[in-house]
C-alpha cells in the first residue's frame, strides 16, 4: 500500500472525503428535520421518563422505607389491619345487651328469679347463648305465635349477631397474625424497589466502569510502549568504555523517561507516583551502567504492568 502511494500519490481531499461529507450532510439535515417535527413528542417522552423514574423511586422505595420505619417504631398508622380497631368490642357489647334484654323480657326463662346480668354477660363472652336457644326451640314449636309475639324474630337476630361476632373473632385472629408479621411484609414490599434500583445502579456502574477500563487499558498500553522505547534505546545505544551510554542516547533516554513520568501523572489511582518517580531516577542514573538500567526497566515492568 505504501509503495502504491509513493508511486501514484495520494488522491485529492475532495476525492477522499466527498462520500462521508455527503452522507453527513444528508443524514444531518434529515436528523434536524426529524428533531424539529417531533420536538414536542421527544420533550414529552423525556418528561415521562423522568416522572416515571421519580414516581417509581417515591412509591416503591421511599414510601415502603417510611412504612418500614413506622413499623419498627410501632406507629399506629403503619399497622396492617383487615378490620377496624374497635369493631369487635362494639359488636360484642351489642350482643351482650341484646341477650340481657331478651332474658329480662322473658320471665319464663329464669322462673321468676331475678336474672343475673353479670352471669349472662360472662356466658355471652364465652359464646354461650343457652337462654336464647331455649326460647328459640320453644318458639319453633309454634312458629306463628312466636313470630306474632316477636320473640322468634328476636332470637334469630341475636343468632345473626352472634355469627357476626364469631366471624369478627376469627378475623381478629388473622389480624393479630398479620400484625405479628408486619415487619416481614414491610421488607417484602421494599424488596422489589431495592432490587430494581440496585440492578439499575449496577448496570450504570458497569457501563461507566467499562469505559473507564478501556481508558485505563489504553493508558497501560502507552506505559508499556514507553518502557519498550526506553529499553530499545538502551539495547541499541553505543556503550562507552566505562559501561555508560553515549550523550545522544542519554538525552533520548531523558526525553522518554520524562514522557513516561508525565503520562503516569495523569493516570488516576493506577499506581503510586512517588514510587514510579524513584524508579525513573534510578533509570536515569547513567553512572550505574546499562546492565543496571535494564534491570530497572525489568523491575518497572513487573511492578506496574503485571
From TrEMBL:
The chain crosses the membrane at residues 183-205. Pfam families: NCA2. InterPro entries: NCA2-like. It is found in: Mitochondrion membrane. It is a multi-pass membrane protein. One of its GO terms (cellular component) is mitochondrial outer membrane. Keywords: Membrane, Mitochondrion, Transmembrane, Transmembrane helix. It comes from the Eukaryota. This is Nuclear control of ATP synthase 2.
